[in-house]
Design a protein that fits this description.
TIM Barrel; binds iron/sulfur cluster; 7 helices; nine-stranded mixed β-sheet; globular
Amino acid sequence: METRVCEVFSSIQGEGKLVGRRQVFVRFAGCNLCCNYCDTPQSRDPLAGDMVTLKQLMGMVNELITPDLHSISLTGGEPLLHTKFIRSFVEKYDFNYLLETNGSLPRKLSRIASLIQYASVDIKLPEHDASPQWDDLFHNEIESLNILIDEKVNTYCKVVILPSTKLDTVGLIASKIAQEVPNASKISLVIQPVSPLKYWVNKKHKLFRTSEKAGKYLDVLVIPQVHSLLKVK
Ligand code: SF4
């Protein structure tokens, strides 16, 4: 079995609740969405990178293992476009895994959810232009969250806010998640101000108010991208 992988590298997780954790990142090729803030546009190309077998990928991962390794990040692009390969890999090789998904493919997710330990699910906003059918996308993200919670995966969701994001938007999204995910108390929402961060320096009140509004419904954290500050991948 083989699939297309853009790159495999060791770095520090720069987003979400596992920020600061040392990981080996496996970046799969291709994505089914087209977010306007995408910071890995090269990985959206389904033909990016090289074809690798399970054994070759394990060899690449092995060479990057360090004593501080926390987990293997399965990222992209959208890793769930490679569900069959990922299922075989995680069944065969015993690590802790973080799945970083856009949440749009719940049926594929259900095939591997019981095998992973951590999951980061993106919540896309209408202004991200990720998909022409935002309602359908949000419905799928909710379904993905429910699958992960049912499987007892340590899960958080992440929403990128843009300069154009209105103050009430994330609060409304958080209230919908709280309504539609029965165990929403187990989920944290990471609000990630879009990079570059210079825009936010004089807009702290916007971050505070956004966090306050969402915090009525969910456990909320505000965490910017850290890897760009450290100038690592
Ligand atoms: S889901 Fe992720 S990889 Fe795909 S376009 Fe959006 S930000 Fe980029």
